[in-house]
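ZP: hey, is the shikimate-3-phosphate complex queued? I don't see it on the tracker
AM: it wasn't, my bad. submitting now with these inputs:
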Amino acid sequence: MQTNQKNIILIGFMGVGKTTVGKELARYLGMTFVDLDQAIESEAQQTIVDIFRDEGESGFRLREQKLFLELSEQRGTIISLGGGAFLQEEIQRSSLLTSLVIFLDIDFSIWSERLPLLIKDRPLLQKKSKKEIKELYELRRETYLHAHYTINTERLTPPQTAEKIAKTIQ
Ligand code: S3P
């Protein structure tokens, strides 16, 4: 597959390292990188936490879908999505059709060690028990597995993950 013509889209649960890996991969492949959440924040001139507070999750999802569809018109771009974006039908359909979708996978028990660091900036993790978060994790994982490629990142640093992705999609 010619990766220079297709966009590469990184998906996975909150805090798996999509942004860090995306930057590494962009460097590795000489492509442009865009983080969808950062693009939403700069367009709205507000943090994600504030958007959730002022507009609710539905307002955030509308922004997410609109901006994703705009950004995905560019070619040769690596886009990292927020953890819920790929759950939106239109985003999922368009990604799978036009881009290479890579799921960054990690076991819940390893991921959950990072949980205390993630809660502050992630409204969807707040006021949930660990059991509820695990259920959300497992449920979403089923959808993430629709990606073209699944990369297990557990024993890899971000540069190693980027290299593995690059070799996998060659
Ligand atoms: C979300 C994930 C976040 C951000 C928002 C909602 C989600 O992005 O888009 O808080 O629904 O999983 P990260 O996956 O980068 O944390």
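AM: back. The domain at 7-163 is CATH 3.40.50.300 (Rossmann fold).
ZP: great, adding it to the tracker
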